[in-house]
Amino acid sequence: MSAPILEARELRRHFLLKKDYLGRGGGRVHAVDDVSFSVMEGETLGIVGESGCGKTTLARLLVRLIEPDSGVVQLEGKTIADATGGMPITEARRKMQMVFQDSFASLNPRLTIESSIAFAPIVHGLDKKEAVDRAHRLLARVGLEPSRFAGRYPHELSGGQRQRVNIARALALQPRVVILDESVSALDKSVEAQVLNLLLDLKEELKLTYLFISHDLNVVQYMSDRVMVMYLGRIAELGPAEAIYAGASHPYTRALLSAMPSMDPDHRTMEPPLAGDPPNPIDLPPGCRFKPRCAFAEEMCGRIDPHAAAPSAADHIAACHMVIPGSGHTRAPA
User: Fold this and answer.
1) Phi and psi based region of residue 68 (left: phi greater than 0; alpha: psi -120 to 50; beta: remaining)
2) What is the pLDDT of residues 52-81, one digit of tens each?
């Protein structure tokens, strides 16, 4: 790992809600709110958090499937979609691809597997014969014999086979960054293990950089070099995987880790690690967004936003007043 290959700076996306004919409703959903991070070349950044925390929206913002309200995404040091000498979106999408959660909905049911993989290279100017040859090589690389699978349609494949096709399709443009959005969550455990090992082999062989989004904390620990924990559209904690799993700083991260299932009967979870539901993303509370569910919340947590006070240059950051020196929290270091 040498230099950042992907950077996001103050990335924001809010979704406006329409009012009904009586004027009720409206407002805006804070899906991604001032998120900044970098991904080093050759590493795997795991992204975790509850459903609705903004993980998938963030991934779609990075590949420009959704346009951000504000903020900057840089790939290889160049701003994506910048008209003043930046990187065009077409070039960015050659270098950054995404594997989606739903393996069946991601594939065109009217195209054969061979055509699905060769489609993007053809669109980007590769000769059709070369594109088909590349599709066959990639099928073989992900463990699907081209002579058996190239002419099949998506409905003729199992879930694990379809996800292997999606991985092959993502690699067809020879990208440098691959975003994996819950790419193994729909698979049974035996197939999941095969796909995870395949991803690790491909990363080593092709010198890839991964953003790995998942609910499964055990899988994230297995795959990731660093972990980013999101809560209500913001980064709650970001740091090396070993440090976070050994001693998380943010109470939300600790609650997530305590919910991990254990095979040891002496370490069973007898009480829920968190109480209550996340606040309404349309009407967010002032100060810390985790305050309504935090057992360590104090009066100042409802007034001051720890997101702005957290040091951004540190290797391990947490948006919590308890770990920010001089924040005023009784548990904060001096």
Assistant:
1) beta
2) 899 999 999 999 999 999 999 999 989 997
